[in-house]
Design goal:
With 291 residues, the protein is an alpha/beta fold. It is built from ten helices and eight strands. The chain has an eight-stranded mixed sheet, with helices on both faces. Helix 1 runs antiparallel to helix 2. About 5% of the residues have low confidence.
Length: 291
């Protein structure tokens, strides 16, 4: 009876999630993650500082496996202006189900005056450094660190593993990253919106954020996942990035789906939203091939 009540509650919460999805992003994300927590109340160690700034916090979801697990550091998207780590419990849950310890870091966002490129890349590098130094305490294997990101987060993990300066600044290198998954990432674009102009401008600085300019063959193995139906980020981003990786003899894979929208690409990480395309399983398959 208790199980049926929980299932009924989850169905109600998910129904409300879809009602709010288009008009109230924060409320819909809260509802989604509440349903995930109800279904799988996995322990989380929240708001651990990885730096001295107020936003430099991360959440750790330790693997339930008895042995040290491979680690996924997931950088969420949000157009460099919105989103919080606690809104992505569903993404952590997706990878926990696959046997990973998962880390969700926050990072600085527009309109904070410090939210100018490359501030979020330096945030991400600091978070990776914290994970490398501390994850063994949380049932994670520091020798099996994987980066994954969606949209703006995919750009961050890409710039982090192509432009070596950010990892070098914290005493790491691309060799410390076992693999990368970029989900619907904008890897090479000209800012044409007030937010991206503020974050990446002035125009003379735009080449500094173009991932295509940095691929040199030292990148970790990378899987790029995109949808031909994505109306927000063009497929040319993943196509061009993949071509440059392959041309520089980097192990790379490209997966192009046909149906999902830009937002579907992240929600479909979780098995509740999987139809014919299984984003988390494609990432897991690639990561496992590297272990």
């Amino acid at each position: 009876m208790k199980a049926l009540s929980i299932i009924a509650a989850i169905l109600v919460v998910l129904s409300l999630t879809f009602v709010y999805m288009l008009n109230d992003r924060d409320r819909s994300m809260w509802l989604l993650n509440s349903a995930v927590k109800l279904a799988n109340p996995h322990p989380v160690l929240a708001d651990i500082s990885y730096g001295d700034k107020e936003w430099q916090k991360l959440d750790v979801y330790p693997s339930q496996n008895p042995d040290a697990a491979p680690v996924v550091i997931f950088i969420h998207g949000g157009s460099w202006r919105h989103g919080r780590k606690d809104q992505y419990r569903f993404a952590a849950d997706a990878f926990i189900r696959k046997g990973y310890t998962v880390v969700l870091p926050d990072y600085v966002k527009h309109p904070d005056e410090q939210a100018k490129f490359p501030s979020f890349a330096t945030d991400a590098a600091l978070a990776v450094k914290w994970v490398k130094d501390n994850i063994q305490t949380f049932n994670g294997d520091p020798e099996k660190l994987f980066l994954a990101g969606h949209s703006a987060g995919a750009h961050t993990v890409a710039i982090l593993t192509t432009d070596s300066q950010y990892l070098q600044q914290v005493g790491l290198s691309e060799a410390d990253i076992s693999g990368v998954a970029g989900i619907a990432g904008p890897y090479s674009f000209i800012p044409d919106w007030e937010v991206t102009k503020a974050v990446f401008g002035p125009p003379a600085r735009y080449p500094l954020m173009d991932v295509f300019n940095y691929v040199d063959g030292n990148e970790p193995p990378t899987i790029l996942l995109h949808s031909s139906s994505d109306q927000q980020v063009g497929q040319y981003n993943s196509d061009g990035y993949y071509d440059r990786l392959v041309a520089n003899n980097v192990k790379a894979e490209k997966v192009i789906y046909q149906q999902p929208s830009h937002i579907d690409m992240v929600t479909m990480l979780h098995p509740w939203f999987v139809k014919q395309d299984d984003v988390a399983s494609d990432i897991d398959r690639f990561f496992r091939s590297l272990m």
